[in-house]
Amino acid sequence: MDETRVADFELSHHSQLMESLEYVISSATKKDLPALIAKALGALVMAKNPSLEIANTELERHGLDYFHLAVGQELVKTLNLAASHQLILQASHSHDAVKHAIVALGLLGERLTKNRLLTCGHFEKEPAYEYAQVQYQKALINLRGSLGQEPLPPVEIVLTSCFLFTLIEFFQGNDVGSLTHLRSGMNILQRCYGIKTGERPPMNNSLPGQDLMINEFIRIFSLMDVHATRFLSVPDSQSPRGMSVDVTPDFDIDHFDNLQDAADSLNCQITRIQFLRHSVLTAASASSNEDDWAERERLLLRLKRWPLAMASLSNRLHGTAEEARCIAILKMNYLSTLVILSTFLHPNPDEGLALFTPAFAQILALAKSLLRPASPVNRLHILESILVLSREDSIDNMTLFSFFSGTIQPLFFAATKCRNYSMCVEAIELLREEPWREGAWSSAALARIATRKLELRMQVEPPTWPHQMPQMIGCPKYLMSIGVHPL
User: Fold this and answer.
1) Residue 286 DSSP class
2) Separation of alpha carbons 387 and 396, rounded Å
3) If you average pLDDT over residues 163-167, what whole number do you get?
4) CB–CB of 481/475 below 8 Å?
5) pLDDT over 70 at 473, yes or no
């Protein structure tokens, strides 16, 4: 079976699994929940079946060591882990599912650090990669087995496993598998701890320090949920309004002394917009209210002040090639954020997106100026510019779990949301050419995800939208009317 057919099969399998898992957990009682999760995990194990005969204790020790010394430390730094990180380390000595998962994550993390890419088609033949797959399967099998017998593992161990499985699938570019585990963790939190209503039923089978631990899991899963709704084009958040994380401090939006100030200001606004969408787009939310609309308008007015301050800063810069790249990256993220916020709460999202075809055209123009001609050199230049904007001092210090907005996220957004078919295809090609990675985001993985989404969209929509509004793309008056400043 060729790679495309295998990928389609896995997508179909995981989609069915996600729907069934969502149903059984939502309808389950607390007593039968572990058995139903075990059944679903059994289906997931059957989706992929690498050889389980591989045995290499040296690789196992190496994976554990790399997780403890590198991957785990990056998780602590990026996600601000405390209690859950200690739980992971302790559980790796007593729960096989956690041990096998962190071995897999350690080996995958090392390959990512060394090669910057680890997606379908990369490194499958390397022993460490194959061993990581075996360890992942063992983790799934062990968790399934432990959930099917007494005594049941603590719920915190199941949540830890869901968290680690989410990262393993995400690192390999499997968005459906990653979202399946993310949703499982969300459902467990809601079902077992009454997060929706704020009630927490007593847990007889739990670890000491439960409140601290569970609160941290709520924050971690909510944070991942926020990023999934923005960057993976997930239509609805899975976590209810009560599951939120801290909002970043405010930054000046009318004056920037340097490019880093401009990046801080834009990222602050992006974060606030993410959390507004997260608070509204929940599975439990039937509709938005007046406060949501008012907050959207307030944020939109603030966002539209950013390009004015950016233009003022540009006039004071030296005009170097690095400054031009930084400005282009910031503009791409401003435009994608403008489209997201402007079409948020729109009664007809597709119609709203069609109005912003000019913004998508500008995103593509900026991307082409950065990415072509495709070469390792300009990919390195992009990473260097992202380092400048994120105030990092070395590419080696760019964590695997960094969600800093560079060029990949706006391109993926254009590839999945633009109503101009030819532009979607062009965005995918830009992601696919000379693959590169920006922190947590892999261009090759997102190109594959975008291709699937586009194919699915073409199956349910007639191809009548390839060239909507071409006459408006370069019209300055129209651009200004929707808040898009001409390049």
Assistant:
1) -
2) 10
3) 92
4) no
5) no
